[in-house]
Structures are given as structure tokens and as C-alpha cells.
Amino acid sequence: MAASDVSASGGRKRPMEILSLGPSRTATASMAAAYETLGVPTYHGYRLITYPEEGAAWERAADAKFFNKGQPLTREEWDEALFKDFGALADICFMFWEELLEAYPEAKVVLVERDVDAWWKSFSEGILPGLYSKKVDFIVNYVEPAVGPRTAHACRKMYGGYLGSGWGPEQLEVIKANAKDRYREHFRRIREAVPKERLLNYELGSGWEPLCDFLDKPVPDVPFPRVNEAEIVQRRIKEATTTTLIGGIRGLGLYVIAPMVVVGAAWYMRSLR
């Protein structure tokens, strides 16, 4: 499908221009802000925190890719469920790089690779606590099955499937053992798969010029964005976890209280006979 032919795909109104396929914590928030500055609306993993109902599509994609359950999403399904309003993809999208390269062959690819040890420190301190903790266990085991949405399920399936070997709480240790090798493999495989003319290996700190030259965009008259991703992620995950727990406890309360009311009413009616 040509870049200009956007109407035939899941309600898409604009072309898909950029697949920013660096893993989470490779300056994905700064790169997303840069694409937005260039006039390209960007889908970032933060959105899943704000719109947890989108977790259903991500869970379906993870089930198909990592657990042989169901069919992979088509381009039309990606667009309809998640991407139709966006021209760039970043952050959690990296775990579906093969599917997205196939779905959007017109899009250019940007990679940002940090030193593996620096990346692992940032990832293990900033992302993993939001996936594996007693609070998240409670949400996965009790809240989401009862009242949904299944956002924590989706995130565990994505990260556990890509960096580990499953999606349960035991995957924390598997990810710790595998993550650095998977990180290196991620970049190697993309560089092997993507033609050089379609790929930019962007170096942090190099400013607007290489990115704008690659994307054929004018250079903005503003500094290149520098977003404190660690602070944003930790704050938003904490807020989302707290909101989910409170909502879940209220929802679970209905499951407990409603049957008690029914039983109590039946007992009362029987006592009147």
C-alpha cells in the first residue's frame, strides 16, 4: 500500500511515516516528542497507561506472537484498534517490530541504541517494578479477571514474551538473565532485516539535522527535546496502579456485597412466611 493510500486501512487518515523501534528506555519519550515537534502524531507506551482499554488489542497481539493463541493482527486491525490517528510508533511497539515492518512497508525506521549496561540499569529500575510486584500480582490475579481491563496482563505478556519465556511472575528472573542478550539481538536482527536506505541509526545528542535529513523534514527552530523518561514512567505507573487498585477493590466489593444482599433478602422474605 502506498504511503498516500491511507483510507483503505482501518480508518487511517494519514500515512504511517516512522517506526521508532528502539526498546523501552532508549530515549523513546524524547524521540516521540521530536516526532511530534516535526508534526507527526506518535503512539507511545504512555498511552496504554492513560487508555488502559487499549490493552485488549496488545494482549491479543502478544498472545498470537508469543503464545501461539489466535491470529496476528492485520494492518487494518492494528489501525482500527490502535494506530489510525498516528504517523509514528515508539516504545512498546518495539516488541512487534517484525509485524509492523510488514504491516507498514512505507514507513522509515529509526533506531536509538544505548550502551547495554546503561540501558539495563534504566530498564530494570524503571520498567520492571511496574510489571512485577505484589501490587501488580494482586491486579493480575484478582482485579483484572473480575473487573478489567487487562492492561497488566497485556504488559506482562509483551515484555515476558519478548525478553523472557512466558508471562507469569517467575519471568522477572528469566528477564534478568536474558535481557541484555535479547537487547543486542533486537538491534542485530532489525539491522539485518531493514534496507540501509530505510534505516537511520540515530545517535543521541546529534540534534535535528540527521533525523530531519532522513525524514525529509525542515529543521525546527527549537532545541531537540530531552524528556525525563524515568520520572514520567514512574509517576504514571504509580498513578495507574493506584487507580486500578482502588477501582478494583470497589468493583470486587460489588461481587462480594451483591450476593450477600441477595442471600439476605431471600432470608428476610422467607422469615415473613
From TrEMBL:
Bilayer-spanning residue ranges: 252-269
Source organism, top-level taxon: Eukaryota
The protein's name in its UniProt record: Sulfotransferase domain-containing protein
Family matches, as Pfam families: Sulfotransfer_4
Keyword annotations: Membrane, Transmembrane, Transmembrane helix
InterPro entries, per the entry: P-loop_NTPase, Sulfotransfer_4
Taxonomic placement: Eukaryota, Fungi, Dikarya, Ascomycota, Pezizomycotina
